Amino acid sequence: MQAVRVAGPQRDAALLMAKAALATVIAWQFAVRVLQSPAPFYAPMAALLVVDKTMVRSLGASAQRVVGVVVGMSAAWLVGTTLGVHWWSMLPVIYLALLIARWRRLGDHGIQVPTMVLLSLLTVGGTDVEFTYLTIVETVAGGVIGVATNAIVLAPLHVQQPREQIRSLTVRVCILLNDIAAGLREGWDTEMARAWYDDSTEIIELAPTIQEEIETGRESMRFNPRDNLRGLEVDWVGYAKTVEAIGRAQWQLSGIARTLVDAADEDESQPTPTKHFLECYAEALDKIAGGISHFGLAGDDEVSAVTDYLGSAGDILDQLGREVRETDLEDPRAWPAYGSLLLDAQRLIRELEMASRQAVMPTDSGPIRKPGRRVIGR
After folding, report:
1. According to its record, how does it sit in the membrane (predicted)?
2. Is the torsion defined by CA of 143, 146, 149, 152 positive or negative?
Protein backbone atom coordinates (compact mmCIF):
# COMPACT_ATOMS: atom_id res chain seq x y z
CA MET A 1 0.00 0.00 0.00
CA GLN A 2 2.91 2.34 0.66
CA ALA A 3 3.93 2.06 -3.02
CA VAL A 4 0.44 3.20 -4.07
CA ARG A 5 0.17 6.15 -1.69
CA VAL A 6 3.67 7.66 -1.89
CA ALA A 7 6.04 8.08 -4.83
CA GLY A 8 9.50 6.74 -4.12
CA PRO A 9 11.71 3.64 -4.19
CA GLN A 10 8.89 1.29 -3.19
CA ARG A 11 6.66 2.48 -6.02
CA ASP A 12 9.57 2.24 -8.48
CA ALA A 13 10.28 -1.33 -7.36
CA ALA A 14 6.62 -2.30 -7.61
CA LEU A 15 6.36 -0.82 -11.11
CA LEU A 16 9.53 -2.60 -12.21
CA MET A 17 8.20 -5.95 -10.97
CA ALA A 18 4.88 -5.37 -12.74
CA LYS A 19 6.65 -4.57 -16.01
CA ALA A 20 8.88 -7.65 -15.66
CA ALA A 21 5.80 -9.83 -15.15
CA LEU A 22 4.03 -8.25 -18.12
CA ALA A 23 7.07 -8.64 -20.39
CA THR A 24 7.41 -12.30 -19.34
CA VAL A 25 3.80 -13.10 -20.23
CA ILE A 26 3.99 -11.27 -23.57
CA ALA A 27 7.22 -13.04 -24.51
CA TRP A 28 5.76 -16.42 -23.53
CA GLN A 29 2.68 -15.90 -25.68
CA PHE A 30 4.83 -14.64 -28.57
CA ALA A 31 6.96 -17.79 -28.41
CA VAL A 32 3.85 -20.02 -28.34
CA ARG A 33 1.68 -18.28 -30.92
CA VAL A 34 4.19 -16.74 -33.34
CA LEU A 35 7.32 -18.90 -33.09
CA GLN A 36 5.33 -22.10 -32.46
CA SER A 37 7.90 -23.11 -29.87
CA PRO A 38 7.28 -26.55 -28.34
CA ALA A 39 9.07 -25.49 -25.13
CA PRO A 40 8.62 -21.70 -24.74
CA PHE A 41 11.23 -21.05 -22.08
CA TYR A 42 13.99 -18.86 -23.51
CA ALA A 43 11.81 -15.93 -24.65
CA PRO A 44 10.03 -15.33 -21.31
CA MET A 45 13.26 -15.90 -19.38
CA ALA A 46 15.10 -13.34 -21.50
CA ALA A 47 12.25 -10.83 -21.11
CA LEU A 48 12.17 -11.33 -17.35
CA LEU A 49 15.90 -10.76 -16.92
CA VAL A 50 16.33 -7.66 -19.09
CA VAL A 51 13.69 -5.41 -17.46
CA ASP A 52 15.96 -3.26 -15.33
CA LYS A 53 16.11 -0.01 -13.36
CA THR A 54 17.24 2.11 -16.32
CA MET A 55 16.98 1.79 -20.09
CA VAL A 56 20.78 1.66 -20.36
CA ARG A 57 20.91 -1.35 -18.05
CA SER A 58 17.96 -2.95 -19.80
CA LEU A 59 19.60 -2.62 -23.22
CA GLY A 60 22.91 -3.79 -21.84
CA ALA A 61 21.38 -6.85 -20.16
CA SER A 62 19.54 -7.74 -23.36
CA ALA A 63 22.69 -7.52 -25.46
CA GLN A 64 24.74 -9.50 -22.94
CA ARG A 65 22.16 -12.28 -22.71
CA VAL A 66 21.80 -12.58 -26.49
CA VAL A 67 25.57 -12.69 -27.00
CA GLY A 68 25.92 -15.30 -24.26
CA VAL A 69 23.26 -17.54 -25.79
CA VAL A 70 24.56 -17.14 -29.35
CA VAL A 71 28.16 -17.91 -28.35
CA GLY A 72 27.10 -20.87 -26.23
CA MET A 73 24.79 -22.42 -28.83
CA SER A 74 27.28 -21.80 -31.63
CA ALA A 75 30.09 -23.48 -29.69
CA ALA A 76 27.87 -26.47 -28.92
CA TRP A 77 26.79 -26.79 -32.54
CA LEU A 78 30.38 -26.57 -33.78
CA VAL A 79 31.61 -29.25 -31.36
CA GLY A 80 28.59 -31.50 -31.87
CA THR A 81 28.79 -31.50 -35.66
CA THR A 82 32.56 -31.85 -35.96
CA LEU A 83 33.70 -33.94 -32.98
CA GLY A 84 30.53 -35.37 -31.50
CA VAL A 85 29.64 -35.57 -27.83
CA HIS A 86 32.41 -37.41 -25.91
CA TRP A 87 34.00 -36.84 -22.54
CA TRP A 88 37.22 -35.69 -24.20
CA SER A 89 35.35 -33.20 -26.45
CA MET A 90 33.20 -31.93 -23.59
CA LEU A 91 36.19 -31.10 -21.41
CA PRO A 92 37.87 -28.43 -23.59
CA VAL A 93 34.62 -26.84 -24.82
CA ILE A 94 33.18 -26.46 -21.31
CA TYR A 95 36.50 -25.07 -20.08
CA LEU A 96 36.54 -22.56 -22.94
CA ALA A 97 32.91 -21.64 -22.25
CA LEU A 98 33.73 -20.99 -18.58
CA LEU A 99 36.60 -18.73 -19.63
CA ILE A 100 34.32 -16.77 -21.97
CA ALA A 101 31.75 -16.51 -19.17
CA ARG A 102 34.26 -14.52 -17.12
CA TRP A 103 34.51 -11.87 -19.83
CA ARG A 104 33.66 -8.61 -18.10
CA ARG A 105 31.52 -7.29 -20.96
CA LEU A 106 29.05 -10.15 -20.56
CA GLY A 107 28.43 -9.20 -16.93
CA ASP A 108 26.03 -11.43 -15.00
CA HIS A 109 24.83 -12.99 -18.25
CA GLY A 110 28.21 -14.60 -18.98
CA ILE A 111 26.93 -17.74 -17.28
CA GLN A 112 24.68 -18.21 -20.33
CA VAL A 113 27.67 -19.40 -22.38
CA PRO A 114 28.51 -22.62 -20.44
CA THR A 115 24.82 -23.13 -19.63
CA MET A 116 23.78 -23.15 -23.30
CA VAL A 117 26.77 -25.30 -24.29
CA LEU A 118 25.87 -27.90 -21.70
CA LEU A 119 22.14 -27.79 -22.47
CA SER A 120 22.62 -28.17 -26.21
CA LEU A 121 25.22 -30.92 -26.03
CA LEU A 122 23.34 -33.02 -23.48
CA THR A 123 19.86 -32.69 -25.02
CA VAL A 124 20.37 -32.79 -28.78
CA GLY A 125 24.07 -33.46 -29.06
CA GLY A 126 24.65 -29.95 -30.38
CA THR A 127 23.70 -31.07 -33.89
CA ASP A 128 20.04 -30.01 -34.07
CA VAL A 129 20.05 -26.90 -36.25
CA GLU A 130 16.37 -26.20 -35.66
CA PHE A 131 16.80 -26.34 -31.87
CA THR A 132 19.82 -24.03 -32.03
CA TYR A 133 18.08 -21.58 -34.35
CA LEU A 134 14.84 -21.51 -32.35
CA THR A 135 16.68 -20.99 -29.04
CA ILE A 136 18.58 -18.00 -30.42
CA VAL A 137 15.47 -16.50 -32.02
CA GLU A 138 13.47 -16.93 -28.80
CA THR A 139 16.21 -15.25 -26.77
CA VAL A 140 16.43 -12.32 -29.17
CA ALA A 141 12.64 -11.96 -29.22
CA GLY A 142 12.42 -12.11 -25.44
CA GLY A 143 15.13 -9.49 -25.07
CA VAL A 144 13.41 -7.15 -27.52
CA ILE A 145 10.04 -7.60 -25.80
CA GLY A 146 11.57 -6.95 -22.38
CA VAL A 147 13.32 -3.77 -23.52
CA ALA A 148 10.24 -2.56 -25.39
CA THR A 149 7.97 -3.16 -22.40
CA ASN A 150 10.38 -1.30 -20.12
CA ALA A 151 10.46 1.64 -22.56
CA ILE A 152 6.75 1.84 -23.39
CA VAL A 153 5.23 1.26 -19.95
CA LEU A 154 6.49 4.29 -18.02
CA ALA A 155 10.16 4.06 -18.89
CA PRO A 156 12.19 4.33 -15.65
CA LEU A 157 13.21 7.95 -15.03
CA HIS A 158 14.90 8.49 -11.65
CA VAL A 159 15.11 12.26 -11.28
CA GLN A 160 13.07 13.18 -8.23
CA GLN A 161 14.58 10.81 -5.67
CA PRO A 162 18.22 12.05 -5.87
CA ARG A 163 16.97 15.65 -5.79
CA GLU A 164 15.05 14.98 -2.58
CA GLN A 165 18.00 13.16 -1.04
CA ILE A 166 20.37 16.06 -1.73
CA ARG A 167 17.98 18.55 -0.14
CA SER A 168 17.50 16.26 2.85
CA LEU A 169 21.26 15.88 3.26
CA THR A 170 21.95 19.62 3.42
CA VAL A 171 19.00 20.27 5.73
CA ARG A 172 20.25 17.58 8.08
CA VAL A 173 23.75 19.10 8.16
CA CYS A 174 22.30 22.55 8.92
CA ILE A 175 20.19 21.15 11.75
CA LEU A 176 23.21 19.37 13.23
CA LEU A 177 25.31 22.55 13.13
CA ASN A 178 22.53 24.53 14.78
CA ASP A 179 22.04 21.84 17.43
CA ILE A 180 25.74 21.84 18.31
CA ALA A 181 25.74 25.64 18.46
CA ALA A 182 22.71 25.66 20.77
CA GLY A 183 24.32 23.03 22.99
CA LEU A 184 27.54 25.02 23.28
CA ARG A 185 25.57 28.07 24.43
CA GLU A 186 23.19 26.32 26.79
CA GLY A 187 25.41 23.51 28.06
CA TRP A 188 25.96 19.96 26.86
CA ASP A 189 26.99 16.61 28.27
CA THR A 190 28.63 13.44 27.06
CA GLU A 191 25.35 11.94 25.85
CA MET A 192 24.54 14.98 23.70
CA ALA A 193 28.05 15.10 22.26
CA ARG A 194 27.95 11.41 21.36
CA ALA A 195 24.58 11.92 19.69
CA TRP A 196 26.12 14.71 17.57
CA TYR A 197 29.04 12.46 16.68
CA ASP A 198 26.78 9.55 15.76
CA ASP A 199 24.56 11.78 13.64
CA SER A 200 27.59 13.17 11.83
CA THR A 201 28.86 9.66 11.13
CA GLU A 202 25.49 8.66 9.69
CA ILE A 203 25.55 11.67 7.36
CA ILE A 204 29.03 10.72 6.14
CA GLU A 205 27.78 7.23 5.35
CA LEU A 206 24.84 8.65 3.39
CA ALA A 207 26.99 10.55 0.89
CA PRO A 208 28.16 7.53 -1.20
CA THR A 209 24.58 6.22 -1.39
CA ILE A 210 23.33 9.56 -2.67
CA GLN A 211 26.15 9.68 -5.22
CA GLU A 212 24.97 6.28 -6.49
CA GLU A 213 21.42 7.62 -6.79
CA ILE A 214 22.73 10.61 -8.75
CA GLU A 215 24.56 8.29 -11.14
CA THR A 216 21.41 6.18 -11.52
CA GLY A 217 19.40 9.32 -12.26
CA ARG A 218 21.90 10.45 -14.87
CA GLU A 219 21.88 6.99 -16.44
CA SER A 220 18.08 6.80 -16.43
CA MET A 221 17.84 9.74 -18.84
CA ARG A 222 19.86 8.01 -21.57
CA PHE A 223 17.84 6.31 -24.33
CA ASN A 224 14.72 7.16 -22.37
CA PRO A 225 11.62 8.11 -24.43
CA ARG A 226 10.08 9.88 -21.42
CA ASP A 227 13.11 12.16 -21.17
CA ASN A 228 12.92 12.92 -24.89
CA LEU A 229 9.24 13.81 -24.58
CA ARG A 230 9.62 15.96 -21.46
CA GLY A 231 12.87 17.62 -22.55
CA LEU A 232 14.52 17.48 -19.13
CA GLU A 233 18.02 18.75 -18.60
CA VAL A 234 19.47 18.16 -15.15
CA ASP A 235 22.85 19.35 -13.89
CA TRP A 236 23.98 15.98 -12.53
CA VAL A 237 27.58 17.15 -12.31
CA GLY A 238 26.52 20.04 -10.08
CA TYR A 239 24.48 17.67 -7.89
CA ALA A 240 27.49 15.37 -7.52
CA LYS A 241 29.73 18.32 -6.60
CA THR A 242 27.23 19.36 -3.92
CA VAL A 243 27.15 15.95 -2.28
CA GLU A 244 30.92 15.60 -2.53
CA ALA A 245 31.46 18.97 -0.86
CA ILE A 246 28.92 18.31 1.90
CA GLY A 247 30.40 14.85 2.50
CA ARG A 248 33.97 16.15 2.71
CA ALA A 249 32.92 18.99 5.00
CA GLN A 250 31.11 16.48 7.17
CA TRP A 251 34.40 14.82 8.04
CA GLN A 252 35.45 18.08 9.69
CA LEU A 253 32.12 18.38 11.49
CA SER A 254 32.59 14.84 12.74
CA GLY A 255 35.97 15.90 14.11
CA ILE A 256 34.34 18.80 15.95
CA ALA A 257 31.80 16.44 17.51
CA ARG A 258 34.54 13.98 18.48
CA THR A 259 36.49 16.75 20.25
CA LEU A 260 33.35 17.76 22.16
CA VAL A 261 32.80 14.13 23.19
CA ASP A 262 36.29 14.04 24.69
CA ALA A 263 35.81 17.41 26.37
CA ALA A 264 32.54 16.30 27.97
CA ASP A 265 33.86 12.89 29.06
CA GLU A 266 35.20 13.11 32.61
CA ASP A 267 37.24 9.94 32.10
CA GLU A 268 39.23 11.59 29.31
CA SER A 269 40.53 14.31 31.66
CA GLN A 270 40.29 16.78 28.77
CA PRO A 271 39.58 20.33 30.01
CA THR A 272 36.67 22.16 28.38
CA PRO A 273 37.27 25.48 26.56
CA THR A 274 35.97 28.63 28.24
CA LYS A 275 32.34 29.76 28.03
CA HIS A 276 33.36 32.84 26.00
CA PHE A 277 35.20 30.68 23.47
CA LEU A 278 32.30 28.26 23.11
CA GLU A 279 29.72 31.02 22.65
CA CYS A 280 31.78 32.66 19.91
CA TYR A 281 32.46 29.26 18.36
CA ALA A 282 28.71 28.54 18.39
CA GLU A 283 28.12 31.76 16.46
CA ALA A 284 30.64 30.59 13.83
CA LEU A 285 28.82 27.26 13.49
CA ASP A 286 25.51 29.07 13.01
CA LYS A 287 27.12 31.17 10.28
CA ILE A 288 28.39 28.03 8.54
CA ALA A 289 24.88 26.55 8.72
CA GLY A 290 23.57 29.75 7.14
CA GLY A 291 26.06 29.38 4.30
CA ILE A 292 25.02 25.77 3.69
CA SER A 293 21.35 26.83 3.58
CA HIS A 294 22.22 28.92 0.47
CA PHE A 295 24.82 26.50 -0.88
CA GLY A 296 24.45 25.70 -4.58
CA LEU A 297 21.36 27.87 -5.15
CA ALA A 298 21.12 29.86 -8.37
CA GLY A 299 21.68 33.61 -8.56
CA ASP A 300 24.33 36.10 -7.58
CA ASP A 301 22.49 36.94 -4.36
CA GLU A 302 22.67 33.29 -3.25
CA VAL A 303 26.36 33.04 -4.09
CA SER A 304 27.01 36.27 -2.19
CA ALA A 305 25.07 34.96 0.78
CA VAL A 306 27.27 31.85 0.93
CA THR A 307 30.40 33.99 0.69
CA ASP A 308 29.20 36.38 3.39
CA TYR A 309 28.17 33.66 5.83
CA LEU A 310 31.38 31.68 5.42
CA GLY A 311 33.47 34.86 5.53
CA SER A 312 31.83 35.93 8.79
CA ALA A 313 32.40 32.48 10.28
CA GLY A 314 36.05 32.63 9.21
CA ASP A 315 36.50 36.05 10.81
CA ILE A 316 35.12 34.75 14.10
CA LEU A 317 37.45 31.77 14.04
CA ASP A 318 40.45 33.94 13.18
CA GLN A 319 39.67 36.19 16.15
CA LEU A 320 39.33 33.19 18.44
CA GLY A 321 42.65 31.87 17.15
CA ARG A 322 44.38 35.14 17.97
CA GLU A 323 42.89 35.15 21.46
CA VAL A 324 44.07 31.60 22.10
CA ARG A 325 47.58 32.44 20.92
CA GLU A 326 47.95 35.83 22.59
CA THR A 327 46.23 35.40 25.95
CA ASP A 328 46.90 33.09 28.85
CA LEU A 329 44.52 30.16 28.93
CA GLU A 330 42.58 29.51 32.10
CA ASP A 331 43.77 25.92 31.89
CA PRO A 332 46.87 25.41 29.70
CA ARG A 333 45.98 21.73 29.35
CA ALA A 334 42.97 22.74 27.21
CA TRP A 335 45.05 23.93 24.24
CA PRO A 336 44.52 20.65 22.24
CA ALA A 337 40.74 21.15 22.37
CA TYR A 338 41.03 24.77 21.22
CA GLY A 339 43.32 23.84 18.37
CA SER A 340 41.23 20.89 17.24
CA LEU A 341 37.97 22.84 17.22
CA LEU A 342 39.48 25.77 15.34
CA LEU A 343 41.26 23.67 12.70
CA ASP A 344 38.24 21.48 11.96
CA ALA A 345 35.92 24.47 11.58
CA GLN A 346 38.38 26.31 9.33
CA ARG A 347 38.80 23.21 7.15
CA LEU A 348 35.02 22.85 6.96
CA ILE A 349 34.76 26.40 5.64
CA ARG A 350 37.50 25.83 3.07
CA GLU A 351 35.80 22.69 1.75
CA LEU A 352 32.58 24.61 1.20
CA GLU A 353 34.32 27.64 -0.33
CA MET A 354 36.22 25.52 -2.86
CA ALA A 355 33.03 23.84 -4.13
CA SER A 356 30.57 26.71 -3.87
CA ARG A 357 30.89 27.83 -7.51
CA GLN A 358 30.34 24.36 -8.99
CA ALA A 359 27.71 23.04 -6.60
CA VAL A 360 24.05 22.91 -7.61
CA MET A 361 21.22 22.54 -5.14
CA PRO A 362 17.79 21.22 -6.23
CA THR A 363 14.90 23.41 -5.11
CA ASP A 364 11.14 23.01 -4.72
CA SER A 365 10.38 26.16 -6.70
CA GLY A 366 10.20 24.32 -10.01
CA PRO A 367 12.45 24.14 -13.06
CA ILE A 368 14.22 27.06 -14.65
CA ARG A 369 13.14 27.42 -18.27
CA LYS A 370 15.62 27.83 -21.07
CA PRO A 371 14.94 27.94 -24.81
CA GLY A 372 13.86 24.53 -26.05
CA ARG A 373 14.63 22.72 -22.81
CA ARG A 374 13.41 22.59 -19.25
CA VAL A 375 16.26 22.78 -16.81
CA ILE A 376 15.98 21.15 -13.40
CA GLY A 377 19.43 22.14 -12.29
CA ARG A 378 19.09 24.66 -9.55
Report:
1. Multi-pass membrane protein
2. negative
